[in-house]
Write a structure and sequence with these properties.
The complex is a heterodimer. By secondary structure, chain A is mainly alpha-helical. Chain A has helices at 2-24, 34-46, 49-81, 83-98, 101-112, 116-140, 144-152, 157-194, 199-209, 213-241. Classes of the chains: A mainly alpha, B alpha/beta. The complex binds adenosine-5'-diphosphate (ADP) and magnesium ion. Magnesium ion is lined by residues 60-61 of chain B.
């Protein structure tokens, strides 16, 4: 535990060191050093700019990710459990996953305008397919012998789903959630860059237009930091809910 | 154990045999074009251990799962305790070849899982589970997870789970095939004392001739294509001479030879 924390810190130090050096050479006039970016980050944090920006950005992000997780897991369970709905729905999500999002954005704007709804849609389009598809395939791959065991000990369908299928599928469901959340972050920023500049997307495009590159990189850095923190929280949640799954699978 | 005759044909055996715990009557099962079981009939005497012995693919697992109510028969009936079955029931418990333990649950929860599904309160089911965990020799491992146990210990967990629901009939599908030879021998001895002490009916699938003869009160030899019961053998004279002497007993050796003689034609 201690060791892995140390390794994480070491790898962070390496990356930031490389960033600092690359900024000092500099590899491009538009590439600020690590320290310049951190200074900008501190400034924006303390003058309230970031707080205001995140109040905007988090709305579509949190809504979109929550909707994607709820509906995505629900759909995934349904698709995984019934062959008929798989046949019908799984192509939709496969297409959604493969669709070039930037090309869809004009359509969304036409249908839902430039407000929150369109942005939530963008987040959902990014986040939901991988959650649905992972959940469905995890459910479909529940070991048959575990389900049979449940039946032989008189489990009803409800118990088989709650006590066998979902716990067995949970590692893959959670890996889908992690991928979906990361994609949702990308979607939220993309929406702010492509639909209307608000929140963090606004900081990025505005500071770029006035060539304030440290602020631009500080905004990008802050969103990555937030994503990492969020993914770690998700991991804690998984540990808490399905403790034993982390202890490895039965195998010879 | 009422009979001393070896190689008794099925028809004779059923006349003199004790009361049946499970009766299989005219059961057939096809998987598409594959005829897994054809008009199979067999009686399983109460309180005894009956082995289903035969080459792989002759329908042993299929028969056991039909008795368990896990798959439906195409025709015929299964009676357990005199009543025809329609699905799984609390009168039967299954021990799986691949153990079928929940990897995310510790030994205690795995053993108590059958009771958990039946809605038995947590403290009560854990008390019962602890007794059976100790009975199968796993005391001290209650908090261990399946991946921390050896194959033999995992199967002891599977056995304890089946025992803890206190069913009249225990169905065991090649339970020892995935454990090493020494563990297997210990298991076979433990199984004999279980049969003696638990007053349950055991239906035991195996492909090992020696194992079947060692543990069984009655051995049903199944043959494939078409799948049928070719003989019923009831070893008797060595059963109460003590476990260490069984493998040296002349009757034991004769039966092993005889079974091999009738099965050898079916082994590719
Ligand atoms: N689910 C299934 N679908 C199709 N064929 C099956 C299935 N299960 C078993 N069989 C076939 O039925 C026959 C009997 O199988 P099984 O009962 O597993 O035999 P055993 O346990 O004696 O090895 C075999 O030929 C096997 O290939
Ligand atoms: Mg089998």
């Amino acid at each position: 535990m201690h060791r892995s924390l140390l390794l994480k810190l070491l790898s962070a130090a390496l990356v930031f060191g490389a960033w600092e050096i690359a900024g000092r050479i500099p590899i491009s006039y538009a590439f600020p050093t690590f320290l310049e970016s951190m200074t900008a980050l501190a400034r924006m944090t303390f003058d309230g700019t970031l707080l205001q920006a995140y109040a905007e950005t988090l709305k579509p992000l949190v809504l979109g990710v929550a909707i994607s997780a709820l509906i995505g897991i629900g759909f995934g369970l349904w698709i995984g459990l019934s062959a008929r709905s798989e046949w019908f729905f799984s192509p939709i999500f496969i297409v959604m996953q493969a669709a070039p999002l930037a090309a869809l954005i004009p359509l969304l704007v036409m249908a839902y305008g430039i407000g929150l709804t369109s942005k939530v849609f963008v987040v959902c389009i990014m986040a939901m397919p991988v959650i649905v598809l992972n959940t469905a395939s995890a459910v479909r791959n529940t070991p048959a012998s575990l389900k049979e065991m449940g039946q032989s000990f008189l489990a009803n369908n409800h118990q088989i789903l709650l006590k066998i299928v979902i716990p067995a599928a949970s590692p893959v469901i959670f890996s889908g959630l992690r991928l979906g959340v990361s994609a949702g972050f990308i979607g939220a920023i993309l929406a702010e860059l492509k639909i209307t500049p608000t929140g963090v997307g606004d900081i990025i495009s505005y500071s770029r237009s006035i060539a304030d590159y440290p602020s631009m990189y500080a905004a990008i850095f802050s969103i990555i930091l937030l994503a990492v923190v969020f993914l770690n929280l998700l991991e804690k949640l998984e540990d808490f809910l399905f403790e034993g799954n982390n202890r490895g699978y039965v195998s010879d | 154990m009422a009979m001393s005759q070896i190689d008794t044909p099925f028809a004779d055996a059923s006349m003199a045999a004790p009361e049946s715990a499970v009766s299989v009557r005219g059961v057939s099962k096809n998987y598409g074009a594959v005829e897994a079981l054809k008009n199979m009939s067999l009686e399983f005497p109460k309180g005894q251990l009956t082995s289903l012995l035969g080459p792989s693919g002759c329908g042993k697992t299929t028969l056991l799962k039909i008795i368990a109510g896990l798959i439906p028969a195409d025709s015929g009936t299964i009676e357990v305790g005199g009543k025809a079955i329609t699905g799984p029931g609390d009168d039967r418990a299954f021990v799986f070849q691949d153990f079928a333990l929940l990897p995310w649950a510790n030994v205690l929860r795995n053993v108590a899982f059958g009771l958990e599904l039946r809605g038995v309160a947590k403290s009560e089911r854990e008390a019962i589970a602890e007794t059976y965990i100790a009975n199968v020799g796993l005391a001290g491992f209650e908090k261990a997870f399946p991946h921390e146990l050896s194959g033999g210990m995992r199967q002891r967990v599977g056995l304890a789970r089946a025992l803890s629901v206190d069913s009249q009939v225990l169905l065991l599908d090649e339970p020892f095939s995935a454990v090493d030879e020494q563990t297997r021998r210990k298991f076979q001895e433990d199984l004999l004392s279980l049969v003696e002490n638990e007053n349950k009916t055991f239906i035991f699938v195996t492909h090992s001739i020696e194992e079947a003869v060692y543990v069984s009160d009655q051995i049903a030899i199944l043959l494939p294509r078409p799948s049928r019961v070719s003989e019923i053998i009831r070893p008797s004279s060595f059963r109460n001479k003590g476990v260490e002497n069984i493998r040296r007993d002349p009757e034991y050796l004769d039966i092993v030879d005889e079974i091999w003689a009738s099965l050898r034609n079916y082994v590719e």
